[in-house]
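Hi C.,

You asked whether I'd gotten around to modeling the 359-residue construct. I have! Everything is below, sequence then structure, no commentary in between.
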Amino acid sequence: MIIVVTGMVGLNKKSYLEAVCRFAGQNGRDVRLRSVGDLMYAEAPDIPPGKILDISLKRLHSLRRSIFKDIIAAASEVPNLIVNTHATFRWRHGLFPAVDFDQMRLLNADMYICLIDGVVAMHLRLLEQHAVEHSLKDLIVWREEEIISTEMLCKGINDKVPFYCLALGGGQPTVDTFYRMAFQRDVKKAYLSFPMTAVASLESVTREISEFRRRMKQSFVCFDPGDLEEAHLPMVARRARQEGRSQIEVTALNQQVRLDMEEVLQIERDINNQIYARDFLLIDQADMIVSFVPALPDGRAAISSGVERELQHAHEAAKEAYVIWTARQHPSVFVTQTANKVFSSVPEAIAFLQNRYAS
């Protein structure tokens, strides 16, 4: 099994992938990691740390090809290999590719995964670990470029090979999701759909949603939009503007981070557009959608337009769609007509799905 993993600077991919390898080892599977950046520095000891993208493009290209040649040779000697690279570089030279198609064809990977993370977490890591001048707009554009470039690379090399987009998972890293997606490919993949922004202040409802997410992840490979949550940023920024504050304070990587209020508002449209496109991408790479519609304290259904639109997209994409509806009121025809089955509780739904998709 050869897996190419991409993602932009600021993700801390190496630590995440090392955790994947350890998790695989605990499950009796030998998985080796080759990080292109580390290997390039090892082959060119004259280049100071963090300066490799400052060298000439000619030398960078030659160095990269030399490293990939070694990786291709090593691929046949190990049971399973993860290649940690980028699809693109964005630096003082501008935007340019980080791989070559001829070498990627020789590598002949079995899967491509693009790792992503929230813009605030990436911003914080770049401040702490890399001397990279950037704006929030730069990061959100770079992230989108990396996803699209990785998908195009995968389809250009072999359109029969799967491509996945996977969030790191923040406080609960998605290491086990990565492992099961890569090495337990008979386990069904589910997109988890649930209200987010509208119920964020309702503690009892958010607890129910958290339990739904936890239970689903025990049985299936889950693509969870809650693993990358940014929709709240513009709302926090608008509140700060109304209160006359020029900065906002949010939490990322268990730290408090200060952001410029106007800079956050400048990426509001980008955040919304990417949520819309990314959630549909996650649905398309899943086998099914499972939508959890909890009850509000007054008994009404906490159904959001986002959940309804996701169900419709899944229905149109010929995905199996399941709804867990716990409210007293009956679901509308727009829910029942797009769902294969409607359940009244999470345990009922999981029992059914486990029986249906028993491997």
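If it helps when you're writing up: The chain has two domains: 1-185, 187-228+279-359.

Thanks,
B.
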